[in-house]
Amino acid sequence: MNSEHQYVQLSDGHFIPRLGFGTYKLEEVPNSKTIEATKIAIEAGFCHIDCAYVYQVEEEVGLAIRSKIADGTVKREDILTSKLWSTFHHPNLVQSCLERSLKKLRFDYVDLYLIHFPIAMKPGEELYPKDENGTVICDSLDLCATWQVMEKCKDAGLAKSINRRQLKMILHKPGLKYKPVCNQVECHVYLNQRKLPDFCKSKDIVLVAYGALGTQQYKEWVNQSSPVLLDDPVLGALAKKHKQSPALIALRYLQRGVVVLAQSVKENEIKENIQVFDFELTEEDMKVLDGLNRNLCYVVMQSMSDHPNYPFADEY
């Protein structure tokens, strides 16, 4: 993973690997599996680890990374991402969320810190505060104020790079000190985002794609009647043509200029995913994949659709 073409330079001068390892943990998977999977990923060649406060596995991820630093497999200078959770959007709470993450990770800083979700939730220890009807309790906050504290976290050396959604709002923020360096969104062959990559490129912002292999396993937030992405016959045909798996074809779609996150706790899948740079799709292949777009968003969180910062109805 050290060749030049496998990294993308961010607008603040730092570099991010084009393939990252996601650490979102399914409820039925024990935390110990996260340690094992993260170690396997690093040993296989991943040096971009994507984590988050809400995943509740930062302690395990930090342990895995530190063990691989200790044995010389990876350097601390490689990319570690974490994210500000929605119950900490209030300016007085932003830095405390980052400090909690750093304490669990047992690191002095993260390389990239993101605002995980643009909708603020009621502050408190509950990850998803709900009312008596089971509805998530949202909060109304000026996200530009949240961003301002994110800037202070960067100045304090707690994060090298920072990011958030609602790009236009932030880019026009009065007194903006640091613009977002990347934008992490759901992006795959069924949701190729069409206009967003061009917009991001015009603003020198790197697009980071999550859900590149489909996200049906996130049962709480995903419509389970959605089609299984990796079962698509077009992916299957291209996989046969290139003698690769459908998953690798879906990941290789990154060659359109985006950074992609891949997630698995299975050793064979982790090791296979890192092989995405061993082949390249033709221009015609890419056009075929472009044709699969159906503007299908797997993660919709429909219960929050009335919030003014609801992100999933935006064209880009």
TrEMBL record:
CDD domains: AKR_AKR1C1-35. This is NADP-dependent oxidoreductase domain-containing protein. The active site is at Y55. The record marks K83 as: Lowers pKa of active site Tyr. Residues 18-293 form the NADP-dependent oxidoreductase domain. Keywords: NADP, Oxidoreductase. PANTHER family: ALDO/KETO REDUCTASE. GO terms for molecular function: oxidoreductase activity. Substrate binds at H116. Belongs to the aldo/keto reductase family. The keyword Hydrolase does not apply. It comes from the Eukaryota. It comes from Spermophilus dauricus (Daurian ground squirrel). Pfam families: Aldo_ket_red. The keyword NADP applies.
